[in-house]
Amino acid sequence: MTARELAPELPAALPWVNVPHAPSLSDLRGRVVLLHFWNASNIHCQHLSSDLRLLENKYSDGLSVLGVHTPHFDAERQSNIVLQAVNRNYLRHPVANDFNFDVWRQYGVTSWPTVAVIDTEGGFAGLITGEGRREEIDALVGQMLDDASFNNSRNFEQSKPVSRPEPRMPLRFPGKLLVTEAQLFVADSGHNRILECTHEGQVRRQIGTGNAGYLDGRFDEAALNDPQGMCISKDMLYIADRGNHCVRRMRLISGEVETLAGDGTQGFPSFQEYESPAGLALNSPWDLALGNEKLHIAMTGQNQIWQYDLVRNRLLAFCGSGSHGRDDGDPTRATFARPTGLSFADQTLYVADSDSSSIRAVRADGRTTTLVGSDVYEFGDVDGLPAAARLQGAMGVSVDPGGQILWVADTYNNKLKAISLRGGGVKTINLPFKFQHPTDVVASPGRIWIANSGAHEIVRIDTGTGQAKRLPIGE
Predict the structure, then answer these.
(1) How far apart are the C-alpha atoms of 350 and 212, rounded to whole Å?
(2) Are residues 252 and 392 in the same domain?
(3) CA 464 to chain centre
(4) Over the stretch 337-371, which tens digit does the pLDDT of each residue have?
């Protein structure tokens, strides 16, 4: 094997968020090392993390993965935010907070996700960019380890997973909420389950075993994987099963869970109509909203909005070209950037477009406009008229029952904000409660419900008094 140029050593001052001592490349000689350059809010990094987890298990006696996190948003420069992202994505290897992009520049990285490959002698073998390249990485790692075995230079010591876990709490990173007249449904995403509760937080039923998996059946036998958005139509509960890349539904009376669309694997469906969506590979559906007998789906993994026609049983692309951006216009011209929140009212679909820190409005014909926000890399914390207002990574949106206010979970600003649908601008709602990475908001008559994901809790706000109450779910 021809010797490669040595990979640059990691800076001594680089902060690591989940290990007490900084690892060094020189100490890992004899092992293949993958430097995983990723971002907490990047959906493609989430997809690649799943692939790397499989490779870590396969080559535990010869492969080491080191994560290098770089920020998109200002909030992501904070090590506590990076650590929560590590735990949310079940990363069990050392992760550094490269908040000044020092290692990023050192290795010539230009986009997320990127993997820098380092051979057993410390040689830099190059960069592999983008998701969906597990087989290529697998083959390269396998060949490098075989070469090292042949040259008697391989370290066969088993890698040890590292962990700095979240506090043990009844909920773990709750994602999305659904509120009916008498029920509260909580996507307890980190526990891979849906909890059906009373408005006071008493758990009535758990949907899903709590173990990540993909299995239909009775509600207490079915398996989900990072479930997120939900909605109800008649006697059916629909679930965006993000980690399984599919949409599930449960019959509320019998409790039977079945797959409506998706086959449990990630795919890239084209802009067309599908007659057999249960066999179609989808791409990280994140939220759902019902309108006009159609299930609107935030297809986050390919930056589009899709629809499932509940009358015709057809799945079709609704709007978004699939490119990552914030362009308005007709269905095939408009672009989205990680849409994660949906709310439907008055023949309009409102979208929390997280990567662009924007709130978008989509008409029934698929034409998209921007209510608040500017561009993918322009964000902030500014109230006022829509043209000047700024959000930071907002993930949840809900139309008020009165139809004049759009409530926003401004995720990385840790705030609840209100947008006037009558042109009055954006306003922060000041409450005597500390929000931590709120990922969803739902408005119901007299109440607002918040998935306070970073604090692993659900908060209910009385709009009359302004009182905020943490619900004792699962306690």
Answers:
(1) 30
(2) yes
(3) 33
(4) 999 999 999 999 999 999 999 999 999 999 999 99
275-322: pLDDT as tens digits: 989 999 999 999 999 999 999 999 999 999 999 999 999 999 999 999
Residue 181 has what DSSP assignment?
Answer: S
Count of all residues that appear for the chain in the document:
475
Q: Residue 191 falls within a domain, yes or no? A: yes
Are the beta carbons of 178 and 232 closer than 8 angstroms? yes
CATH number for the domain harbouring residue 405: 2.120.10.30
Taken in order 261, 265, 271, 272, the sign of the CA dihedral is negative
Strand, coil or helix: 177: strand
Residue 9: Cβ within 10 Å count: 11
CB 470 within 8 A of CB 459: yes
Helix (H, G, I), strand (E, B) or coil at 250: strand
Backbone angles phi, psi at 75, to 5 degrees: -60, -30
* 335 shares its domain with 395: yes
Going by their DSSP bridges, the two strands 447-452 and 438-444 should be labelled as: antiparallel
How many structural domains are present in the chain? 2
pLDDT, one tens digit per residue, over 434-458 is: 999 999 999 999 999 999 999 999 9
Residue 18 lies in a domain: no
- pTM (2 decimals)? 0.96
Show the domain range for 446: 177-470
Tokens of 142: 């396998």
- Residue (of 271, 372, 286, 368) closest to 322 by Cα position: 271
Looking at the fold, whether 120 and 244 belong to one and the same domain comes out as no
Asked whether the beta carbons of 365 and 372 are under 8 A apart, the reply is no
Computed over its alpha carbons, how large is the radius of gyration of the chain?
Answer: 23
